[in-house]
Amino acid sequence: MIDLTVELGERSYPVVVGGGARHRLLEVLPTGARRAAIVTQEAVQVPVDPGVEHRTFLIDDGEEAKCMETVEELCRSFSRWGLTRNDVVVAVGGGVVTDTAGFAAAVYHRGVPVIHVATTLLAQVDAAIGGKTGVNLPEGKNLVGAFWQPSAVLCDLETLETLPPAEYRSGLGEMAKYAFLGVTGLRDLSLEEAVAACVRCKAEVVAVDEREGGRRALLNYGHTLAHALETAGQYDLRHGEAVAIGLVFAARLAHRLGRVGAERVDEHRRLVLAYELPTEVPEGADPEALYELMTKDKKATDRCTFILDGPAGLEVVPGVAKDVVLDVLGGAA
Fold first, then answer.
1. At a CB cut-off of 8 Å and minimum separation 6, what does 17 contact?
2. What is the pLDDT, as a whole number, of residue 302?
């Protein structure tokens, strides 16, 4: 087991990475919690024992479950059961579960503790860490949410053994971005070390910019196009697959703007291909429609805003001209 900490002063919390990490749930339960509401999905099938009275609340499978209706139903179910702010929500699953259950915990009784038991690679390296919770609207991804730090995160690598290959590759798409955020030799690390390295990188960013006022925005590298592809709803892409496409697109856009050379674009493409993930915008995609969706991204304050590579590393770049974005979406280097 690798024990890490997200340093946030009095709100600091542990992240445990390793096989069997979920069995340390009782150890990280908030002091005084008498009940645990376990939020999961039928397909997850990862049993946990919080060591206190508990009840399981199922949400639907798929990204469609990440919506306001699910949050309302969870909160009403918590209320009917009698959950109090001195109890705890335990989210067991991937990013859909941790995002949705985390948001429900943030708003129910104006905030109850939450622990994430992350069961997918994507959740372990990203979604469960850092306290960003939220759900989607038809107009875009994660447009309604809250910053609500968990009490602990347990990244149990045993749960990855039964993860469908496509879901595992999706996690690799989210992992790939950390290679451009300062994690060196990522593909040479063991799985436990790679997950821990990604968690450590994200924890360091969150510690200095909890609410995304500056540096934390860099964790969205590749996500501007990725969220547009997902919101469009017609490309059958998992989140990590969309991020992989977004990473290569961002590198090509940076090259088009003269920020990086062609070799840096090739580096992005090689890494994504090494993880057996897509590198190109789906055939038949409508550049105008994707552009309009990208202007609705949470980061967008002036036309399209992107995280782009450059001589000083990754930076937030606002106001990228529409014709440039459309050229690169259309295949221009």
1. 1, 2, 3, 4, 124, 155, 157, 192, 195, 196, 199
2. 60
How confident is the model at residue 320, as a pLDDT?
94
Q: Report the pLDDT value the prediction gives residue 304, as an integer from 0 to 100.
A: 86
Distance CA 65, CA 75 (A): 14
Domains in the chain, CATH or no CATH each: 2-208 (3.40.50.1970), 221-329 (1.20.1090.10)
Tell me the average confidence (pLDDT) per consecutive run of 10 residues in the chain, 333 residues long. 96 97 97 97 96 98 94 98 97 97 98 98 96 92 94 98 93 96 94 98 96 91 95 90 98 97 97 96 92 80 85 94 94 64
Supply φ then ψ for residue 173, to 5 degrees.
-65, -40
SS (H, E, C) the chain: CEEEEECCHHHCEEEEEECCHHHHHHHHCCCCCCEEEEEEECCCCCCCCCCCEEEEEEECCCHHHCCHHHHHHHHHHHHHHCCCCCCEEEEEECHHHHHHHHHHHHHHHHCCCEEEEECCHHHHHHHCCCCEEEEEECCEEEEEEEECCCCEEEEEHHHHHHCCHHHHHHHHHHHHHHHHCCCCCHHHCCHHHHHHHHHHHHHHHHHHCCCCCCHHHHHHCCHHHHHHHHHHCCCCCCHHHHHHHHHHHHHHHHHHCCCCCHHHHHHHHHHHHHCCCCCCCCCCCCHHHHHHHHCCCCCCCCCEEEEECCCCCCEEEEEECHHHHHHHHCCCC
Sort residue 147 into left (φ over 0), alpha (ψ -120 to 50) or beta.
Answer: beta
Q: Catalogue the active-site residues.
A: 110, 132, 174, 202, 212, 216, 220, 223, 227, 239
Q: For residue 332, what pLDDT is reported?
A: 60
What is the structure's pLDDT at 213? 84
